[in-house]
What does this fold into?
Amino acid sequence: MTVKNKKTGGLAGVVAGQTGIAMVGAQGKGLFYRGYSIHDLTEHSSFEEVAFLLLYGKLPNQTDLDHFVSRLINQRALPDELKQTLRTIPAAAHPMDVLRTGCSMLGALEPETAFEQQADKAERLLACLPSMLLYWYRFCNEGVEIDFESAQPSIAGYFLEKLCGQEPSATHVTAMDVSLILYAEHEFNASTFTARVCTATLSDIFSAITAAIGTLRGPLHGGANEAAMELIEKFQTPDEAEAGIMKMLEDKSLIMGFGHRVYTVSDPRNDIVKSWAKRLSEECGDAVLYPVSERIEQVMWREKKLFPNLDFYSALVYHFLGIATPLFTPIFVLSRVSGWSAHVFEQRGNNRLIRPGAEYIGPDETTYPLMSERE
Ligand code: COA
It folds into this structure.
């Protein structure tokens, strides 16, 4: 169905509900999780502390955190039936399809039978979504069946260790951890809204998260980080990038990783992720990708007053961490499951079915033609 006026479509500017989880600062500047700035959180907290904050509404003390981390570590393993299902998914499948299927299958094996279980189920997903992704990925690509034992206490360290089969450096774990914090929550974005719509029907948490994964997959939302990497990699020099972007703009192509529905001036997460991209670029002696990216940023601002969103430089960070491009959006899932779950809890806490109206633009009431009367 077409929307008559594009500018009024997409619920732009519509306040669709209340939330106490994330606040997008005035005029699109700043981002706060339960009142704490993402700058403070990335500087001082781990992803696990942030996940606890989102799920339980307060920063954990040391005992809370130790218990939370050990519960997550103890729930990394996958049931045999789920491993069996993952092994049947083709190597050519997109890893987002793997997570969507894996999440749904887990909901069938370990269903949420009462809302009192919601926190346990959220923790289970947080703990084992990385295992699902990497179990399938290593099995399909290398024929390796990973185990779920690891000395890495953090999700960031566990992910990098299981992906590469070796202990990651402390710098790489921190970069990954910061990225997980930045991706953890973002108010009423498309996938979170999807999770809330599903939750509002009184469905289960696995259905809500599965629906959210499907929504995140699209390139206008989470899929943009993969598309941004593919774009950056096309160019060998900044000048080539400038010419390529100018041509794309002339052709009215979308430049992935730029623009935002809510932010108007800049994405408050960008300076943090960009500084990590720069640091990792220097560490690995890159002389192409970072300069190309900066030139794309300059051209986009000069020509369109569009700024990079979180996905643009996140793509570079993941690339420098040695992560294959098709895994970029799935990493978004591993983090955002914390925010989605917090929204499931919040929606349930004050629920009403979400069912908007629509402006009808179809034909007027018409006489029903018998088969013999139809052209
Ligand atoms: N590249 C080129 N032009 C862009 C653009 C981009 N990344 N983002 C927006 N624009 C242009 C649009 O073409 C439109 O131009 P017009 O007024 O001449 O038609 C104008 O800017 C407004 O864009 P619109 O599509 O109405 O904004 P939106 O709020 O509906 O969309 C996004 C927001 C994020 C979907 C959009 O900026 C986009 O598609 N970005 C690329 C995908 C991406 O990075 N997504 C991740 C978001 S975190």
